[in-house]
Specification:
This protein is of the alpha/beta class. It is 50% helix and 19% strand. The chain contains ten helices and eight strands. Strands 2-6-1-7-8 form a five-stranded parallel β-sheet, sandwiched between helices. A three-stranded antiparallel β-sheet has the order 3-4-5, covered by helices on one side. A hairpin with a 2-residue loop joins strand 4 and strand 5. Helix 1 crosses helix 10, helix 2 packs across helix 6 and helix 8 crosses helix 9. The chain starts with 5 loop residues before the first strand and ends with a helix. The relative contact order is 0.21. It binds cytidine-5'-monophosphate (C5P). The site of cytidine-5'-monophosphate has 13 residues, from helix 2, helix 5 and helix 9.
Amino acid sequence: MLFGMSNNIIAIDGPVASGKGTIARLLSAKLGWKNLSTGDIYRGISVHMMRSGVDPFDKEQVIKCLNCLDMRVLAEGGETLVFLGDEQVNGQLHSIETSKYVYKVALLPEVRECSTRIQKRIAAEGNLVCEGRDIGSVVFPNAKYKFYLDASADERAKRRWLQDRLQDPTLTIEKVKDGIQRRDLMDMNRSVSPLIIAEGAIVIDGNQTPDKIVEDMLNHIKSYQVPA
Ligand code: C5P
């Protein structure tokens, strides 16, 4: 159904380390569109909660801390910039500690509503490539272009290990794979906004090179634009 479709949103969903961030950045640069990593919004909320010593499984503590969140998110220059008060916290968003914390608070509907409000505000500014877990299914179900990027657990573990071993040289690929699979299970099985292949989404093989993936996506986007 074309009625109500958002022509100016490209939704990219997929599991941990499937390459969504890299692909969204490349695609947005090619199109001259804004790029939003919604994971960075959940990560910004997590940094705020971790600083306050909040137990991520204690709903009352999380909601109380959410009420004093002073966070600003900008999609600029192909990046997602996250500020807590006046402090830009992007350097802390992808620490191993934040990665272990974020999926726990992302389970809560109140946290998701807060994040979704920010996403909708940024989308209202115009052309947006938006990547996450529930973009095509829940946040922007009317997005005209929806992709689901997947890659094997081994490939994803290798990619994440190459990044994370800089922070922790003792890390093994097996340990990273284990953590990735645990987060996937939580993201896919939660009751609110689980990671699914959204209706109408095109599944893209994330084991390919980034250039090939972007080329595939652009071909799909072009073919959509041919008048019926
Ligand atoms: O994409 P990224 O790995 O940075 O996301 C971090 C975490 O944030 C995910 O594991 C997931 O728990 C949560 N998330 C989410 N919904 C989104 C984006 C991220 O629940 N749209």
